[in-house]
Design brief:
This protein is α/β, with parallel strands linked by helices. 42% of the residues lie in helices and 14% in strands. It is built from 14 helices and twelve strands. Helix 8 links the parallel strand 5 and strand 6. Helix 5 packs parallel to helix 6. The protein starts with 6 loop residues before the first helix and ends with a helix. The chain binds D-malate. The site of D-malate (MLT) has 6 residues, from loops.
Length: 387
């Protein structure tokens, strides 16, 4: 028997990265030497000392039971200490930190805890697809905020219609941004805090990429701005910072009442992050800065190489100041999906069509520098031969 899917699922487009993975695998099966610049999944290995911490904790049978709750106290303390060190932000590890099974999980679940049917969620377009998916699963309504180049790819809060604002309960912001790599500064976040207070809206800032920055220019945290904790939360991930995508560990920090709602949803749906993975997370968060500096150095070289190569091709893009994404204008007026189809077919390169991140992403495509320099050079070679 073939059972129909629930309407909420049918309202969603197929999950972008699963679809891309299918296309990539089909091309590999045909024998194509694929260069994948699609999903933002680091090719670099998780550092050994993190794996050792996992192994040690996994050997302890006390860690084999349900983890439950908002995370091990020690993990939450490590998050709080890391925030203090990195951003100068003070967090009470008891109720201002929640461990997540990856930031994606928390981003998807938050609306279930704070959104009632028909409530509006302000979602950036282009944006990480999970903001809209989580809204739909909570029976909320997404109002898309265009991220335009002329505004530095930041949402313009002043153009959101008054009737939308009346129903809005949650706004998603994201910096360093996926897919555009744009950065929000304290001035933007100050405006967001004022806006949230005025309209009684929860702010959820996705900060998964703050540690992947270039030229020594550190991105700021939303919580650095006065009043931020009164109105919002921030999501982080160990995935990109420590090459731990598959481990599924992240955290949310900030406003207690919002985190309580998220933790209550999670308490009913999952049983927390496997303790040994939390111990590995502690090892990562307590590591000297040299660990992330080494990772940044690798991406910096790749960014410089790829930016120089794309410039030679004459393509239009802003050199990313953080994150590992290049957000590039489709060079020849094709639709972003057709263009990425052509790039896959003629060059054997997986790139992500901009419209997969929302309607305002049309006209752009995204390339990720999660392959080594030799492969990036090969990719540039192939791209230079596109007709
Ligand atoms: C992306 O490619 O946009 C991200 O890697 C997806 C994710 O982090 O879930």
């Amino acid at each position: 028997m073939d059972f129909p899917q629930a309407e909420r699922l049918r309202k969603l487009p197929p999950y972008l990265f699963i679809e891309m993975d299918k296309k990539k695998k089909a091309a590999i099966e045909k024998g194509v030497d694929i260069i994948s610049l699609g999903i933002g999944d680091p090719d670099l290995a998780t550092p050994d000392f993190i794996i050792e911490a996992l192994y040690k904790a996994a050997k302890d049978k006390a860690n084999h039971q349900y983890p439950l709750g908002s995370g091990l106290p020690k993990f939450r303390e490590a998050v709080s200490a890391w925030y203090k060190r990195r951003f100068g932000v003070t967090l009470d590890s008891k109720d201002e930190v929640v461990a997540l099974i990856g930031s994606k999980e928390g981003i998807g679940h938050l609306p279930i805890g704070v959104i009632n049917p028909g409530d509006v969620v302000l979602v950036p377009s282009p944006g990480y697809p999970v903001y809209h998916a989580g809204t739909l699963f909570a029976e909320g309504v997404s109002h898309f905020m265009p991220l335009l180049e002329k505004n530095g790819f930041l949402p313009d809060l002043d153009v959101i219609p008054a009737d939308v604002l009346k129903k809005a309960k949650l706004i998603w912001t994201n910096s360093p941004n996926n897919p555009t790599s744009a950065l929000a500064g304290k001035d933007f976040y100050t405006k967001v805090v004022e806006f949230a207070k005025k309209h009684n809206i929860i702010v959820a800032n996705d900060a998964a990429y703050t540690e992947l920055y270039y030229d020594g220019k550190k991105p700021v945290s939303f919580l650095e701005v006065p009043g931020a904790k009164e109105v919002g939360v921030e999501f982080h991930s160990l995935s990109k910072t420590f090459n731990m995508t598959g481990w599924r560990i992240g955290f949310a920090v900030g406003n207690k009442s919002v985190l309580k709602a998220l933790a209550d949803v999670k308490g009913n749906l999952d049983s927390g992050v496997f303790n040994p993975i939390q111990y590995a997370g502690i090892a990562a968060l307590e590591a000297p800065d040299s660990v992330t500096e080494n990772i940044r150095k690798i991406y910096q070289e790749r960014r410089d190489l790829f930016a120089a190569g794309l410039k030679k091709l004459g393509w239009k893009f802003q050199v990313p100041q953080a994150a590992f994404y290049f957000w590039i204008k489709v060079p020849n007026g094709m639709s972003s999906a057709d263009w990425c189809g052509k790039v896959l077919e003629e060059a054997g390169i997986v790139a992500t069509p901009g419209n997969g991140f929302g309607a305002e992403g049309e006209g752009y495509f995204r390339m990720t520098i999660t392959v080594d320099k030799a492969r990036l050079e090969e990719a540039l070679q192939r791209l230079s031969k596109l007709k």
